[in-house]
Amino acid sequence: MHQQKRIILISLITGIVLMMAKFLAYFLTSSNFILTDAAESIVNVVASSFAFFSIYLSALPRDENHPYGHGKVEYFSVFLEGGLIVIAGILIVVKSVYSLLEPHAINDILTGAIIIGITGAVNGGLGYYMIQQGKKLPSITLEADGRHLLTDMVTSLGLVVGLLLIYFTDILWLDSGLSIVVGLYIVFTGYKLLRKSIAGLMDETDFGVVTNILKVLNDKRKEEWIDIHNLRAQKYGSELHIDCHLTLPNYFDLNRVHEEVSLVDKMINTEAGVKTELFIHTDPCLPECCHYCSMPNCPIRFEPKRVQIEWTLDKVMRNKKHFDL
């Protein structure tokens, strides 16, 4: 968590400096187009401040009131960021529509374009770095903040092109017209962040993470692991929680069962690339399992193995053994 805090703090300080630069560009030019970027920078600063607090809170140990930890607060951070982006985008569109009806002169366009271009380049580099670190750690807050900064870079690039177009054509209504387009793009970006945060808060399955875990299980599958079903996954910040049922030979004693469960736990945490807490319920095998069981020298086998069942999403997420397929 120390590394996440450091990255968010860098993002916060950078955001404050760039926000001041963008408002300077707006006061120099009186351009609504530049104001769209400056207004979004306020969102960057507020969101980074809350993200810093959410990462601190998510790092707190579990307690009686939060038995799964405090990781869910990261989704609230993303929700706040997405909501602020949507509000900023709507306000930009409203102001730009008004200015479209009442156009005004724009000053020092080239100076404004240079300032915005520099801020966009800084945001782009920082955003790319934060996305990579967000995937590596992993942290939805860092990744969301990084994607927001990349959006800001795209907005700034559009700003520079638009300002140069206004400079060379002297068409004043382009300032407000292009601002409306950028404002709608900002609203769409905020919507995507809101959608992602709500999915996390509602414990929506992250199919990408589950698919990666299933690949590890299939690649490292042991003959003793006859069947996996009723698999459910939940994200709590950077930690993943998995519940599943594991079918083992019914003649294994408790020590052997514990050993196999521990192997599954260790394998996923080592190979899947995400810190995972597993709650594995073990089921004894039944005669109906024999036709897909690979256990050699089984003393209770009723029939030879006939099929190889791959553990796929549609199979392992069902609450029934594979012989019912």
TrEMBL record:
**Residue ranges constituting the Cation efflux protein transmembrane domain according to the UniProt record:** 8-202
- Where's it found, cell-wise? Membrane
Say if the entry is tagged with keyword Transport. Answer: yes
Q: Which coarse location class describes where this protein primarily resides?
A: membrane
Named from the GO MF annotations, one term is: ferrous iron transmembrane transporter activity
Q: Which InterPro entries match?
A: Cation_efflux, Cation_efflux_CTD, Cation_efflux_CTD_sf, Cation_efflux_TM, Cation_efflux_TMD_sf, CDF_Transporter
Tell me which residues make up the Cation efflux protein cytoplasmic domain: 223-285
Family designation: Belongs to the cation diffusion facilitator (CDF) transporter (TC 2.A.4) family.
Q: Which NCBIfam families does the UniProt entry name for this protein?
A: CDF
Q: What is this protein called?
A: Cation transporter
What is the species listed in this Swiss-Prot or TrEMBL entry? Mucilaginibacter limnophilus
